[in-house]
Design a protein that fits this description.
With about 350 residues, the chain is mainly α. It contains 15 helices and seven strands. The protein folds into two domains: about 140 residues, Tyrosine recombinase, N-terminal domain (DNA polymerase, domain 1), CATH 1.10.150; about 180 residues, Intergrase catalytic core (hpI Integrase, Chain A), CATH 1.10.443.10.
């Protein structure tokens, strides 16, 4: 056996203590492919912002990693608001703020949301972690500053804004705006598919494929969600099977018959002349929700995520068990799914009326 192995011409020869360049490239490609498109896009956006901020803040010097701790601390105080005698303030110079907006790195002048600051620091931390560098974001000063900053925002009542929940009554108003046109039928099918199957994320809606859809009866389907945010390794689990029944099943069947789709993506763009186009961008689901809200006269801070939060909130209203709710949403954490209940859900708590 040894003679046979030695007779094989192995090229190039590898060293066990160091990775070959091709192996390093393969690792990077696997890591990139294993990330969701939304995650990659958010990381790229944060990285571009860091680079632009650094160059403007440090006299035109391009950013190089690893970063010193002082740089991360400066980034935090430039973007975190603090209470002063003159009101809330941060250290980002107005000229740099304007330059970041003009360059397209910021959407508008002024401080970013606290969640945006935390995300950008997390992205920089990840960049150091992947490369095996000393991580300035894990420095004791940085961690303590971020912790105190979070408490300061909370004390001021500056809490993360959650998207309003599209509960059943509100969703019915949106559905009423969907006519029998091809676009109306598609939008109705999308809204009901996303809501009724457990509150599908927008990326899950636009990537839904016919090969994962199984018809089990007239206007009744089972959709196999083999990959999601909470199942990124594609494990085969019973809760991967998402029922699309009732009004949702009828809307989906009508859409498939009208569109003639028998393979490939279930939901697609609609071009002029009612021709089917290519894949939909995840942002299109948000646009549909907001456009239908406008048509229905439903006011509020709604987005694609409102379908997911609306499903969970409605499940709470109707006393659906937490286990059944989580089986459809795909949540693995009870505190996480409980966090989706909105202000109206506690109003259904019988304990609030013990006195009468």
């Amino acid at each position: 056996m040894d003679i046979f192995i030695l007779s094989i011409n192995i090229s190039p020869a590898l060293h066990p203590v160091a990775l070959h360049n091709t192996a390093q490239d393969a690792i990077r490609e696997l890591l990139r492919e294993g990330e969701s498109l939304n995650t990659v896009a958010s990381y790229q956006g944060a990285a571009r912002y860091w680079g632009a901020w650094y160059k403007l803040r440090y006299g035109g010097t391009p950013m190089q990693l690893p970063l010193p701790v002082a740089c991360v601390l400066q980034f935090i105080v430039d973007h975190a608001q603090r209470t002063t005698t003159k009101g809330l303030a941060c250290e980002l110079p107005p000229t740099i703020d304007r330059a970041l907006v003009a360059g397209g790195f910021k959407g508008k002048l002024g401080p970013v949301a606290h969640s945006t600051l935390v995300h950008r620091v997390a992205v920089m931390s990840k960049a150091h972690q992947v490369q095996g560098w000393a991580n300035p974001c894990h420095d004791a000063q940085v961690r303590e500053l971020l912790s105190r900053t979070r408490r300061a925002y909370a004390k001021r009542g500056d809490l993360p804004l959650k998207k309003a929940a599209l509960t059943k009554d509100l969703l019915e108003q949106l559905l009423a705006t969907c006519d029998d046109s091809m676009r109306g039928q598609r939008d109705r099918a999308i809204l009901l598919f996303a809501w009724a199957s457990g509150g599908r994320r927008r990326s899950e809606v636009v990537s839904a494929d016919m090969q994962a859809l199984r018809c089990i009866g007239p206007a009744e389907f089972i959709y196999t969600l083999s990959h999601s945010k909470t199942n990124q390794t594609g494990r085969d689990r019973p809760e991967n099977q998402k029922p699309v029944l009732g009004a949702a099943g009828q809307a989906l069947q009508t859409w498939l018959q009208t569109s003639g789709i028998i393979e490939g993506l279930i939901f697609r763009r609609i071009l002029k002349g009612n021709h089917l186009g290519g894949p939909m961008n995840p942002a299109a689901v948000r646009n549909i929700v907001q456009a239908r809200c406008a048509l229905a006269g439903v006011d509020g801070n709604f987005s694609a995520h409102s379908l997911r939060s609306g499903f969970v909130t409605e499940a709470g209203r109707q006393n659906i068990s937490l286990a059944d709710t989580m089986a459809l949403t795909g949540h693995q954490s009870i505190p996480t799914v409980m966090g989706y209940f909105r202000a109206e859900a506690p109003m259904q708590n019988k304990g609030a009326r013990l006195f009468g």
